[in-house]
Design goal:
Strand content: 25-35%
Distance between the termini: 53 Å
Strand order of the largest sheet: 1-2-3-4-5-6-7
Number of strands: 12
Protein name: Glyoxylase-like metal-dependent hydrolase (Beta-lactamase superfamily II)
InterPro entries: Metallo-B-lactamas (IPR001279), NDM-1-like (IPR050855), RibonucZ/Hydroxyglut_hydro (IPR036866)
Mean pLDDT: 96
Radius of gyration: 16 Å
GO molecular function: hydrolase activity
Largest sheet: 7 strands, mixed
Order of helices and strands: EEEEHEHEHHHEEEEEHEH
Structural class: alpha/beta
Keywords: Hydrolase
Length: 240
Amino acid sequence: MTVTWEEHGWERLAAGVGRCRLPGWDCTAGLVLGAGTALMVDAGSSLAEGARLRSAAQSLAGGRVTHLALTHVHFDHVFGAAAFAGAAVYAAVGADGVFRRGRDELRHDAVHHGLPADEAEEAALALVPPRQLVSGERTLDLGGGRQALLANVGPGHTAHDLVVLVPGEPEVVFCGDLVEESGEPQAGPDAVPSRWPDALDRLLALGGEDALYVPGHGAVVDAAFVRRQRDALAARFGVN
């Protein structure tokens, strides 16, 4: 029996491509299905949430998650990563250093935002730096004619922002928190505001006018929304 995206509470975006909005911080996780492969985009905010994502993804894929792309190193996107044992883990170059040196900051941030302290401690201790680091662009061949392009378009929301473009009809771009729909984009102490508009210009150049843009938080948007957010960020931070 074929399992549908909707049965797992996921939103189908294109053939073999979907996403879900996770409770708590309205964080997006994405899934791209290939032939005997599955690419997860972001891993949730705890090991338990990561395990739930893995279970749903395996049901939809009919097999294990083989690839995991982390859009940036914030707890709500990476603390479930250890649940994906055996997957090749990808991130923007430099993100590995945050995994090594920033565990305490990630743990404190998670607890500050409401994650129970024991879950935050467990997830922080389990973090393993990603081995597959993307400095420009990298194409993953997922089999069956399915490809995914990983692009290091940052810095912006953080110093190490990765996006995932999935060609097709329509094209789908997983933006991480470079784009947010459910609230104003968050610029924390690790943001690089002066470079954020440029990152969104690169994002738009990759996806084009007809792509679906999947923000890190909130509803799927179009190129016009991304462009408006880009201009608002430029005005907010006094850059072109």
